[in-house]
């Protein structure tokens, strides 16, 4: 079975976006750039088993403007050449693109959770989500995320969305690993506790 792995950057108080009144996809306004670079090496490790990226609509629109222009980096090559799936809810996007690379496919309709379960049971490598907090919350509510890798930066932010806002119920996790990054950030790896 394919795993769904979340990789996301967070403040100490759980904020994972930028300021919603400006550009909420720009969480980089509060992060430490050295921590981003080191964290990117761990994201690259996920691609040793992952071949598919799952994105929410807003994150797709942000990343599709940036990543296809990234050339010459191992992470850029992995991201640009991975299969991409964009969850677009009930309103399909007319023309998804990813620069000169393979265009993303859409998951749309009222049965997104079932479609993702089918993906997990299908052929292929693991599936990685980075960013996409709205999608993450939906998948967490449906118990479809197998591993949470959170780069926690040493900063508290007073605006932005929290990763686990609006969950339907309490979620229990097991700590799998902690790595201390050189800049004082932590890479925390959790898996859902089995009932």
TrEMBL record:
This is Bacterial bifunctional deaminase-reductase C-terminal domain-containing protein. Pfam families: RibD_C. InterPro entries: RibDG_C, Riboflavin_Biosynth_HTPR. The lineage of its organism: Bacteria, Bacillati, Bacillota, Bacilli, Bacillales. It comes from the Bacteria. It comes from Paenibacillus allorhizosphaerae. The gene is yyaP_10. Residues 2-183 form the Bacterial bifunctional deaminase-reductase C-terminal domain.
